[in-house]
Write a structure and sequence with these properties.
mainly alpha; 434 Repressor (Amino-terminal Domain); 2 domains; globular
Length: about 120
């Protein structure tokens, strides 16, 4: 299934019209949504994240890396910078070896901060 098909399928699952999805994404016209659902859609990372947020699923699902839409935990008081979003997106598409490396690095840096404070 293509990203265009997943966007359309997820929009329909949520009971949204193209106009409603456009509004959810802050887009004034449904033309962008129509193009995303019917053409060879090759979005930027930022655009995939925008669609995923509006469609309440992970970017990985839209890209076809997950079989089922994984719900995104909504945290209303946290805003991610474009760099943070890119890091999260890269982490999600990384293989398990790379993910484990990232987890180890983060655990070490957190442990160092805690030991300095103690």
């Amino acid at each position: 299934m293509t990203i265009a098909e997943r966007i359309k399928q997820r929009r329909i699952e949520l009971g949204l019209t193209q106009t409603e999805l456009a509004h959810k994404m802050g887009i004034t016209s449904k033309t962008t949504i129509c193009k995303a659902e019917t053409k060879d859609f090759n979005p930027t990372t930022d655009r995939v994240c925008e669609f995923a947020k509006a469609l309440e699923c992970s970017p990985a699902y839209l890209m076809g890396w997950e079989e089922k839409p994984t719900a995104i935990k909504k945290i209303s008081d946290i805003t991610l910078s474009p760099e943070e979003e890119e890091i999260i997106f890269a982490y999600r598409k990384a293989d398990e070896v790379d993910k484990n490396s990232v987890r180890k690095i983060l655990n070490v840096s957190i442990g160092e901060k805690e030991s300095v404070v103690s």
